[in-house]
Every structure is written in C-alpha cells, then in structure tokens.
Amino acid sequence: MKVKKYRASSMPEVMKKVRAELGAQAVILQSKTVYTGGFLGLFKKKNIEVVAAADPNARNTPEAQESAPPPPVLQKTALTVPSELTDEMNEMKKMLRDLQKSASPSVYPEVMKPVMDQLEKHHVAKELRDQTASYLLGKWNTEKAAATEEQFQEWAAGYLENCLPALPLNGKKTAKYFYLLGPTGVGKTTTIAKLASKQVLEDNKNVAFITTDTYRIAAIEQLKTYAGLLNAPINVAYSEDDMKQAVEELQSFDAVFIDTAGRNYLQDQYVSDLKPLIMHRPKESGYFLVLSAAAKEEDLHEIIQNFLSVKLDGFIFTKVDETKTKGLIINLMYTYKVGTSYITNGQNVPDDLIESSNKILVESLFKD
After folding, report:
1. Per the domain annotation, does 283 fall within a domain?
2. Which of 13, 169, 255, 323 has CB 3.0 to 4.6 Å from 8, enough for a Cys bridge?
3. Do residues 191 and 156 lie in contact, with contact meaning Cβ atoms separated by under 8 Å?
4. Residue 94 is assigned to a structural domain of this protein
5. Are both 190 and 155 inside the same structural domain?
6. Is residue 368 over pLDDT 90?
7. By three-state DSSP, how is residue 342 classified?
8. Pairwise CA distance, residues 47 & 32, whole Å
C-alpha cells in the first residue's frame, strides 16, 4: 500500500495530482484545510491537503480495474475558519477603521474644519456635507492665500443656499385660501392666528377663518377667540359640503385661513380622508405643511411622503426655539425640493413668526 500526502489551492487541483500519481483506484483517507506562509501572522495562504492511498501492484492489472470499487465521491464540506484567523481578520478591520478615523480630519485644511464641524453639529445630512466639503476644497485649491475661516463660512453658506429650492411665486404666501396641514400638536391653530394677524395689522386686509378640526372642541374655541380679536368671521366645516359652502360664502374676503384637523399622518389613510376637504378652488389656494423642528427627522420623512400626493407650496416649521439643531429643516428641503415659507420661534401672536428664506435658514447653521 502506498500512502502519500498532496496539497494544492483547491480540491480539483489536489485530485489531479492524486490521479496522476496513484491512479483512479486511489482512496482518500483524509482531507483538511491548511494555511501556509504569511507575514507577521497575516495574509496566510489557504490550501487543501489530502492524504491518499493506493496498491501499486494492483493499479494497472485488468482484474483490479474490473473488481476495484469506484472511487469515493468527495463531498463538499463547509470549511471552518480557524479562530486564530478570525481574530486576525477582526484585528485588521479595527486597525483600518482606526486609521481611517485618525486620517479623515487631515483631509480638510485646518481653517476649514470649524465650518464642517458646525454642519455636523447641526445634523446636516452626510450627503450634503460631503458635497459642501468637495466644493470648499475646490475653492481652497484655487484661492489658498485668501482662504480664512470667515471665507470658508461664506463659501459654504452660498453653496448650501443654491442647493435648496426657491419658493415659487413667493410660495403662494399671497394665496386667497391658505390651508395649513400637518400632524397633531405642531401648533397649526396658533400659527394660523399669527398669519392672519400679520395680514390684518401689517397689510390691513380683511380675513376670515374656516376650521375642519372638529375632533378637538378646544381647537375650535381657540380659533374663535382669535377670530373675535381680529373681528373676523369663522365657519366650521364638518363635511365636504360644509367646506364647499364655506369657501363660497367667504370669497369676498382678501384671505381665508383654513385650519385642518391634526391627525397621525404617519398613516396615509388620514391624508386620503383629508383630501376632499381641501381641494376647493386649488388655483387660488396655497397648501402648507406645518411640521415641528423639534420632531424626529425619520418620522417627518414618513409624514412628508404621505403628503406627496398633495402639491405642497411650502413648509412651515414651528418650535424652532425648542431645538439646538437646524439641519433637519435643511435636509427636508433638500430631499423633497420644497421651500420653507415661515418659521415660528415662540407662542406670542403675531410676533413669533418669521418669513423664511434660504439665506436665513443657512445662516442659522453658523450662529452658535
């Protein structure tokens, strides 16, 4: 009996060697994976090692060839990676991560780092940060001598402003029918009072109110209080027919502000239920989605996606004073190409209401 060990990079290569030397009658006694070579314990080469045996006297006789059993079928088995190699691979990954982490700040010139740190602090989306960094590096390469921290901030602000959508037709801020949409608890009723007060006190306009928020009696009473202070009529619409009638009755007013019901608009069914109440005179209407700047960005993405079937004319972000990070507003505008018409920063009517612009929003990223 002749017994010999063979080694190759794969099982087919090993079997070629076995058959070439021992013939087709060779019997496989053992097979395993081995690792050889490497440097400092790393980059070892994987091989398949096989121990085979054959009777040299019987391998070439016709009788042996006829009576010999067929060679065993080699079953493919899952190769187990030794724990030592797994530990080495994990160590290599950690080294690479540490190297990348330690090297990444050096990509930016020292004078550029405060700007990039500020964008990250405000949770501006990574995609937008990376685009801004690429633009700033391009500017720096051509204007190194004049590049100060203030200059980098000015370049970054200009670039980000251009990335954000402009408000078409003044964001329909002068629409006759002014619909405020959005989830419960974001401050739609207070915001509507601020908007109406602004038009009455600053523009001397005649305004009226419609509310469809029949789920909360307190909301109706609150809006009635504001309407009384402004000497403005208010209609309550319980159905689509009520809404149509109210719109017709108030068409002589300069502006009509419609307060819609706040619901859990993470569920798109509520948006579908709302549509019949808001689609009267759409060409004369402005549709504004009111969102809290202090909410979770992930939730707001889902709410906005459910409202994409409504052609939004702008965002209104409330509770801006309740969060230290402003990147959420920038991210949502950039993603959905919808401008921000107003922001609110308190409960005072009508003072805590600011007409927004891309410049105002971007500059807020660098003010603290």
Report:
1. yes
2. 13
3. no
4. no
5. no
6. no
7. strand
8. 9
